[in-house]
Amino acid sequence: MRALAVIDETIERPKVPSSWDQIDAAVPQLAVTMLAYLAQVTVSFRPATVTATDTDLRIFAGFLIDHDPALSCVADIDRSHIEAFKIWQHAQPGIKGKPFKATSFRRRIGSLRMFFIRIVEWDWDDAPARVPIFFGDVPKRDESLPKFLDDGDFAKFMRVLADEPALFRRLAVEMLARTGMRVGELCDLESDAVTIMHNEAWLRIPIGKLHNDRYVPLDPHLVELIAEYQASDGPFTPRRLLSGAEGPLNRYAVERWVHRIGMRAGIGHVHPHRLRHTFATQAINRGMTIDVIAALLGHRSLDMTRRYAQISNRVVANEYAAVAAKIEALYTTDAPLPADAIGPNMRRMRNEVHHRLLGNGWCQRPAQLDCSFESICESCVHFTTDLSFQPVVLRQRDHAAANNQTSRTELFTNLLDQIGQTP
Q: Quick one: CA dihedral 250, 251, 253, 258, positive or negative?
């Protein structure tokens, strides 16, 4: 096993080979194996993923050629090469001289690890004896919460957007903000993406990142903007709903438009995906269910959508305030203490805790706290009632209201609504 010197973080960055011909000229077998792998994954990967994998392999090959001229093939790559590459890659500058992003580092190491896993599993002749990149080499993904614009900043953003003179730019950014679609999905919208179903306008978002397509309802304001754009002088690109000044809509151009609007609004840098996060957060804060939000965003799993529930500040704040008020009541009650209580702590406990005998134990819920399980049968999906039970349900509703039991009050009010006899 050859030992490579640890890479100095100040080392000059080798030039990434601009083509596979340069790699083939230096180490032919290295190029043959990596190109064969790219040909295989082209069948199953999306074009953008293939492009990224191509870049990852060329960067890795360029590093190997520069730092180990004796290397003759992929089978020669061992752990020492990986350890040196990790240190070198981590020290490289990112875009515009900024530090190399942790997410980019994680993706590149993960991509190279998958390359080795696959060629070893495929039993290729030019594969190392074992995968030289370990699972622990790939940094764990940070599970950070989505960044979104609060209501005030979003209002500023939309006011500036309304003054955008270029109609095609305004329409593109408005569609991101009002539908929650990804910027790549926006750029791929086809000319017939707008359709009418049940007398309402819907937008068909094409197959994208998660290999699924979907329909989302169109806001009437967007319908008007699309009609205005289609009646204008363009620009237009064949088979595309939206176009840029120089042809098909480009995601990097859209990112610049969104950034400039954010800067003019005085809220700093805004990325298109932040508008998607804002759309989801606004929806959940205003009562939209998670499964509906998942359908609008095109999520395959509700776990992807539940992240927004964690930042739904209004929902969390309201529920926290309701519970905090009830808990605070435990320590501020002026109810008289039993005369036979022993000691101040015991008197407080006796005053706050009620032992309720149940079938196989006791309930020790403080009297001041509401309980959503006191009427568990009435909240069951199999429960039903009718007008003959109206007097009983009404008495239960009034009893819950008199005892400040908001959950039970709402439950019995809903039952009375179902009966159609809410006084």
A: positive
Residue with tokens 């109810």: 335
Distance CA 308, CA 303 (A): 10
- pLDDT tens per residue across span 217-251: 999 999 999 999 999 998 999 999 999 888 889 89
- Nearest one of 84, 119, 91 to 105, comparing CA atoms: 91
Q: How far apart are CA 299 and CA 301, in angstroms?
A: 6
At 73 the three-state DSSP class reads coil
* Rounded Cα distance, 291 and 299, in Å: 9
The count of other CB atoms within 10 Å of the CB of residue 423 is 7
What are 383-406's pLDDT values in tens digits?
888 888 888 888 888 888 887 788
Architecture of domain 20-137: Orthogonal Bundle (1.10)
Q: Exposed (0-12), middle (13-18) or buried (19+): which is 141, by Cβ within 10 Å?
A: exposed
Residue for token digits 């005892």? 403
Residue 306 CB-density burial (10 A; 0-12 exposed, 13-18 middle, 19+ buried) = middle
Within the chain, which residue ranges are assigned CATH 1.10.443.10? Answer: 151-313
**What residues does CATH 1.10.150 cover in the chain?**
20-137
Which two three-digit tokens encode residue 248? 């098909």
Tokens of 276: 């998607």
- pLDDT (tens digit per residue) in 122-139: 999 999 999 999 999 988
Identify the burial level of 119 via C-beta atoms within 10 angstroms of its C-beta, where 0-12 means exposed, 13-18 middle and 19 or more buried: buried
pTM above 0.85, yes or no: no
For 193-257, the DSSP string reads: -EEEETTEEEEEEPS-TTS--EEEEPPHHHHHHHHHHHTS-----TTBS-EETTEE--HHHHHHH
Q: 151-313 adopts what CATH topology?
A: hpI Integrase; Chain A (1.10.443)
